[in-house]
Amino acid sequence: MKSTPFYTKLAHISISILAIGYIAVIGKSILAPLIIALLFALLLMPFASFLERKLRFPRAMAAFMVLLVLISGVAGLMVLLGSQLSDFARELPAFEKQLMLSLDELQHWISRSFNINNRQQAAYINQTAETALGHGTELIGTTLVSLSSSLLFMVFIFLYTFFLLLHRGLLLRFIVALFHDSHSPIVYEVVERVQYIIRKYIVGLLLQMAIVATLTCTAFVLLGIKYAFLLGLLTGILNVVPYVGIFISLVLSVVVTFATGDTAHVLFVLAAIVVIHLVDGNYIMPKIVGSKVKLNTLTAVLALVVGEMLWGITGMVLAIPVIAIAKVIFDRVEGLKPWGMVLGEDEVANAQPEVPADEELPPLD
User: Alpha-carbon distance 194 to 332, whole Å?
Assistant: First the structure.
């Protein structure tokens, strides 16, 4: 049997990648909430199985109870964040006043250091303000549409999660039926591995988020930073977005501290976040999240860039787990093993078993 020429394989791969990218772009409104719901379903599946097996709940009732737990957790986080933001909003006039004083001091410093007089700076600021006001109506309309879209997005996530838990047996049988009977063991192995990796990854990510938020809140309180709890909570939440989230939290923390403190506090905030990020990257992330998602750094960064290009912030959050699922599939399909190899870590430099010997895979339901 003749092997397929390289240029033919290259054409097939290129067309497939372009087709997947096109489908991802036009299908964002369906695929994005469905993938998030799949991750939630994989995370909560052991709880649903416990309710069915130990407490003899019907599957629909178990799925509904799990959904209530998910909604309660998300709502609790939103209420906590909302209460902090409302406290911040009540002090917004004082914050704006302090910010204007800080900007005035910065303006005088620029004038002394770079010989740009206050009139030139004021003209530039006024021009920028006029441009911003010109788009004010459009910005408000866009914000309202975004809020309504976000609420609808969350509703679909909860609905998809419920139905994935309710019909998980049917979906598993469908996936197995797509392949020849001789491939059934491999299919079951892939499904088990995906459940294991994604579950451990999400649990580790949530724990990492809590630890980073606690460390940041503690550091800011000890440093006497205003809105320490709000900034720490935002830092923990934004840390879910790899590499980029910590930078966004750094900018927010510096801006708020600049308006409510002095230069020394700004420097302390910079140092604190940098130190926490180093501790997170070198200790918390490897120890808590572990190497369940075995992706090399280049793959992770490229996944974030492509995810942002396709789906924005949502794509950046989903990039790592989606690539991890793809790697599990690539590693167990003969023709796709080279792709799994290039996505993973260097086995020569990091030769460790993928699953500890004393840890068993969870049973399929």
Answer: 12
Helix H, strand E, coil C: the string for 168-219 is: HHHHHHHHHHCCCHHHHHHHHHHHHHHHHHHHHHHHHHHHHHHHHHHHHHHH
Q: Which two tokens stand for residue 364?
A: 């399929």
The tally of CA atoms less than 13 A away on the side-chain side of residue 9 is 6
Q: What is the pLDDT of residues 254-290, one digit of tens each?
A: 888 877 777 788 888 889 998 988 888 777 777 666 5
Q: What percent of the chain has pLDDT over 70?
A: 76
The token duo for 183 is 């491939």
How far does CA 274 lie from the centroid of its chain? 20
Quote the CA–CA distance of 8 and 196 in Å, as a whole number: 36
In this structure, of 86-95, 258-267, 316-325, the range with the lowest mean pLDDT score is 86-95
pTM to 2 decimal places: 0.76
Please classify residue 177 by burial: count the beta carbons closer than 10 Å to its beta carbon, then call 0-12 exposed, 13-18 middle and 19+ buried. Answer: exposed
| Burial tier of 270 (Cβ tally within 10 Å: 0-12, 13-18, 19+) | middle
